[in-house]
């Protein structure tokens, strides 16, 4: 899952980036409203953490333009303003949640998790494919009763595939979802992660097919059996 942090306070932004990356998210960061507006026009993010008091263009304008473009990504507003009218304006402009500075990091992380669960449109935090059970909240995965070990990158790739199972996903889309701007990861690296995941998930009855020229398709083995009957 990919997060954009829009915050001009360097110290605060660095702390939020570290916390989210430790949680397995791909995190990008900009420090002014005009840049945020440009980035959001061109790049898909699952969550925007948006400060209101920004140089150039304030956060509410960024939010208003985001929603006017029809973008539905989750938005968590951060602000030092604790006036009720400011909160109401933010929510009326399309924010999903509101957090007043200063705040406790654990509360921020909990709000991010809640918004991510909501944005996946999965009514529960558990995703299934074949015998694989994937818990996005606990960051744990099982094949039957056996827990499987995944690296942070394998986790991110598998989560994206599970959220879009049954769809063919290009290497570029997968990279965009799991990598931030500062990471120099080639599309070939995706082939390595896919190979590792195939080995780990084979006992789960999960197929990770390569659709030559298009990308990858994750589906339960039962789906393949049905197509062949």
Question: What would your notes on this structure say?
Answer:
- By secondary structure, the protein is an alpha/beta fold.
- 43% of the residues lie in helices and 24% in strands.
- It folds into 2 domains: 2-119, Rossmann fold (3-Layer(aba) Sandwich), CATH 3.40.50.2300; 126-227, Arc Repressor Mutant, subunit A (Orthogonal Bundle).
- The chain contains 9 helices and 12 strands.
- The protein has a 5-stranded parallel β-sheet with strand order 2-1-3-4-5, sandwiched between helices.
- Helix 2 (33-42) runs parallel beside helix 3 and helix 6 packs across helix 7.
- The protein is elongated, with a radius of gyration of 19 Å.
- It starts with a strand and ends with a helix.
Provide key terms for this protein.
single chain, 229 residues, alpha/beta, Rossmann fold, Arc Repressor Mutant, subunit A, 2 domains, five-stranded parallel sheet, four-stranded antiparallel sheet, 12 strands, elongated, disordered C terminus
CATH class division of the largest domain: Alpha Beta
CATH topology grouping of the largest domain: Rossmann fold
Taking the sheet with the most strands, its summary is:
5 strands, parallel
Strand content: 15-25%
- Gross morphology is elongated
- Helicity level, as a percent range? 40-55%
Biggest sheet, spatial arrangement of strands: 2-1-3-4-5
Q: Evaluate the radius of gyration.
A: 19 Å
Q: How far apart lie the N and C ends? A: 36 Å
Number of domains: 2
The H-level CATH homologous superfamily of the largest domain, spelled out, is: Response regulator
Order of helices and strands: EHEHEHEHEHEEEEHEHHEEH
Number of alpha- plus pi-helical segments? 9
Which architecture of the largest domain per CATH? 3-Layer(aba) Sandwich
SS content category: alpha/beta
Contiguous low-pLDDT stretches (5 residues minimum) are: 224-229
């Amino acid at each position: 899952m990919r997060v954009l942090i829009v915050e001009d306070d360097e110290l605060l932004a660095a702390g939020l980036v570290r916390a989210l990356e430790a949680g397995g998210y791909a995190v990008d960061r900009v420090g002014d409203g005009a840049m945020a507006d440009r980035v959001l026009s061109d790049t898909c993010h699952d969550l925007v953490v948006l400060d209101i008091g920004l140089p150039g263009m304030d956060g509410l304008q960024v939010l208003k333009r985001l929603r006017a473009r029809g973008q539905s990504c989750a938005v968590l507003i951060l602000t030092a303003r604790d006036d009720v009218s400011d909160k109401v304006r933010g929510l009326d402009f399309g924010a999903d949640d509101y957090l007043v500075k200063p705040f406790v990091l654990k509360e921020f992380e909990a709000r991010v998790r809640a918004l991510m669960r909501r944005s996946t449109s999965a009514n529960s935090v558990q995703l299934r494919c074949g015998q694989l059970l994937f818990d996005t909240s606990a960051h744990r995965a099982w094949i039957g009763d056996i827990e499987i070990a995944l690296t942070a990158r394998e986790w991110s790739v598998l989560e994206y595939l599970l959220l879009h199972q049954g769809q063919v996903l290009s290497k570029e889309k997968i990279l965009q979802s799991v990598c931030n701007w500062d990471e120099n990861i080639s599309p070939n690296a995706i082939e390595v992660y896919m190979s590792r995941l195939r080995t780990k998930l084979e006992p789960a009855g999960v197929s990770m097919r390569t659709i030559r020229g298009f990308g990858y398709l994750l589906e339960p083995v039962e789906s393949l059996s049905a197509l062949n009957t």
